[in-house]
Amino acid sequence: MSATTQTGAAVDISRLSKIYKTREDDDVLALDKIDLKIEPGSFVAVVGPSGCGKSTLLSLLAGLTPASTGSIAIDGDGVSRPHPKTGVVFQSDLLLYWRTVLDNILLPIEIKKLDVAKYKTRAEELLAQVGLEGFGNKYPSELSGGMRQRVAICRALIQEPGLLLMDEPFGALDALTREQMIMDLQSMWLRLGNTVLFITHGIDEAVFLADRVLVMSPRPGRVDLDLKIDLPRPRQWSKTHEDKDYHGYVRQIRAIFEAKGILVAH
Amino acid sequence: MASTDVIGAGQAQKKQGNNMSSKKKSRGPWLERYSALILAIVLLGAWQILVPLSGLSEFVLPTPLAIASRIVNELPLLATHGYVTLFEVVVGFAMGVLVGIPLALSIFYSRAFERAIYPILVALQTVPKVALAPLLVLYLGYGWAPKITLAFLISFFPIVISTVVGLQSLDKNLVNLVRSMGAGEWQTFFKVRLPAALPNIFGGFKVAVSLAVIGAVIGEYVAAERGLGYLQLQANSQFDTTLNFATVVAISGLGVMLYFIIDTIEARVTYKRDSAK
C-alpha cells in the first residue's frame, strides 16, 4: 500500500444479506451472505453487471439501507445508520443548484453543525487540488459535468472520511473527462491514504485503480472472485494499459462474466 | 486541467458567436427587447384613432387617452376603493398561504391524509367559486368577510397543488445524499426539500394572487359598499363607461403589482437553475 498516513478506516463485513420484499411474495435476494474484510487505506473496486447487488452493498455500507442479516463494522463500530467516518460520491454529482460550489462542499459540515468558517480554508484547498481553484463562488450550472463531479468528490472529502464510498462516480462522464478523473482520483487517494470502495461496471477502470477487485454476479448477489491487483504505483495511463499483467487481470474478470453468460464470448 | 480548458474554449466560442450575430443584424435584439411595448403602443394608438372615426359615442367606447386622463383625475377615488380591494386580496391570499402550505405538508408526509383529502380538494375545486359568492354573502354579511373568504377559497388550491408537486418531484438521491451526511428529516426538509420546492411554490403563489384579485372583486360585485368591484358597478349604473374602464385598469394594475411583488421576493430567495449569474 502506498498510503503514507494511517487515515484509512477498516471495514469488516460478515454474513451480510439483503432481501428486498416485493408485493408478490417472491422476495429478491440482493446480497447473499457476503463476508469481506477491507484493509485500512486500500482501494477496493467492486465490478459487476446491473442488479448484481453492488449498489446495495454501497447503500448498506453508507448506512442508508438496513441489512436483513449479518453485520458491518467500520473501525469496529457497527453500522446501522450513516457513519461519521464515511463520505459518499454518487453516480450523479447531486450538487444543490441553489448553492455555490463552496457552500455545496460545506454542506456536510453544516449538517453536522460544525464550525463552517473553520472548514472554509480546507474546502478551498480541496478545490485547488482538483484544479478548480477560484471556482468557489460559482454555481453548479456554470460548471461542466466533470467539474461538477470533482466538486462532489471535494464535498465527500471535506471531513477527511476514513472510508470513501463511490457509486459509479464516472459513469455519466465522457471518455476524456473520465480518463482525467481516474488519474486525479488515483493521485488524490495516494495523497490522502483513505480506504476507498469504488463501485463500477467498468472492468478496465476497476483494474486500473484498485488494489483489489471484487467481481460480483446477480441473483443472488455474491462475490465470485476476489482478485488482488499487483501493479506498480503510481499507475500511468499508457504504461499500465500496455502492461501484460493488467491485461491478464482484465481477462480473468471477463472470463467470469463469460462463464456466467453476462458477457457472450466474442 | 484538461476539462477546464475545454469548457473555457466553449464559452469563448459562444461569446464570439453572440457578438457576431449582434453585429450582423443590430436591430434584432433592440426590436426583441421592446417588442411588447411597441405592440401595446400600436394597439392603443389604433384604438385611439379608430374610435372617433367609427362614430361610437364615449358612452359606448371611450378612447385610451380619455381613460388615462380619467384615471389621473379620479386617482383619490380609485385609491380609496383600491385599498379596500387590496386589503381583501392580501388577507385572502395570506390565509391561502397559511392554510395551503401546512395542508400541502400534511399531504406530502402522510399517505393516509393524502388519500383522504385529495378527493375532497378536487371536488371543492370543481365548484365554481363564483357560484359561492351569494351564499357567502348570506352567511357572512356585507363586510370584509365574504370577499376575503372568496379570495382565500380561490387562491389556496393552486398553492396546495404546486407545493405538493414541488415536494414530490425531488430527486430521491438528494435525500440519500444528505442522509449519508447524517441529516435527519428536519434538516433534510430545510436543506433540500424546501429549497428545491421553492420555484414550484412561488409559481403557485403567482397563480394564486392573480386569482385572489378575481375572488375579491367578484365578492364586491355581489354585495359591497366599497372596493373597486363596487366602484365599477356604480360607474356601470350611471353609464359612466370611462370610469368603468378606469376601474378595470385599476383592478388589473392591482393584480400585476402583486404578481411582481411575489416575483421580486422569489428572485431574492431562490436561485434559478438555468440563469447563470
UniProtKB/TrEMBL annotation, chain A:
The record ties this protein, via InterPro entries, to: AAA+_ATPase (IPR003593), ABC_transporter-like_ATP-bd (IPR003439), ABC_transporter-like_CS (IPR017871), ABC_transporter_ATP-bind (IPR050166), P-loop_NTPase (IPR027417)
Q: Where does the record place the ABC transporter domain?
A: 14-243
Which Pfam families does UniProt cross-reference here?
ABC_tran
CDD domains cross-referenced by the UniProt entry: ABC_NrtD_SsuB_transporters
Keyword terms of this UniProt record: ATP-binding, Nucleotide-binding, Transport
Q: Does the keyword Nucleotide-binding apply?
A: yes
GO-annotated molecular function: ATP binding; ATP hydrolysis activity
Name the SMART domains on file.
AAA
Checking Gene3D superfamilies in the record gives: P-loop containing nucleotide triphosphate hydrolases
Q: What family does this chain come from, according to its entry?
A: Belongs to the ABC transporter superfamily.
Q: What is the name of the protein in this document? A: NitT/TauT family transport system ATP-binding protein
Look up and give the organism this protein is from.
Answer: Aminobacter aganoensis
